[in-house]
Structure prediction request, 212 residues.
Amino acid sequence: MTQPGATQRSRELADESPMPNTRKSESVTGRARRVGAASKTARESAAKQRLTGYGLEPATPHVPSGIVIRAVVIGIMAAVYALSAVAQTAKEVKGATPLVSIPNEPPAKLIVDPPVPDQLALGRVFIQYRTENLRILPVFGNTALAVSPRIGHLHYYVDGQSWPIVDTSGETVVLVGLPPGPHQVKLELADATHKPIPGCSKVVEFTIPPRK
Prediction:
């Protein structure tokens, strides 16, 4: 039989035994987590320093392609806007409108380019030109001298020919069939009565290469 006194003594001893301290356990766990986080940060910092020492850079997060595309589109739009802000007006490119007369018109000008090189190498002569303060039109006669803005046309002479070739197209002068060797073409602006306009002539010299 069990001694009643022994059973009671066992219960008293059980009641006197210390209970685990929950708060102390939680405090220890929290410190352990903080120490672990600090250790992880220290390890990451040391790894970064090792990469830098070897001339390497830590990996950076990947940027989604959609963000990159949007940034490129925005950059292109900004560039187009900047270019349009400095675009020339129609009058600056084409000259004065032919519907409104110009008082005290500035003098006419003739600008001529050298023959196009790649075409010249093939024996074809393409001479581009443009005019300022004069429109190339197939209009002739004394009455046309009073037209404003000013009108006229182009004369050109190949290798010193006596009579000019009259051009009212305003397009590139094209010469084919010239023999190999040196040549010259004189271009001049003329008014509606075929009178040359002073200061508006250019001489272009070039050489046709030998045929292969």
Summary: The mean pLDDT is 80. The domain at 105-208 is CATH 2.60.40.10 (Immunoglobulin-like).
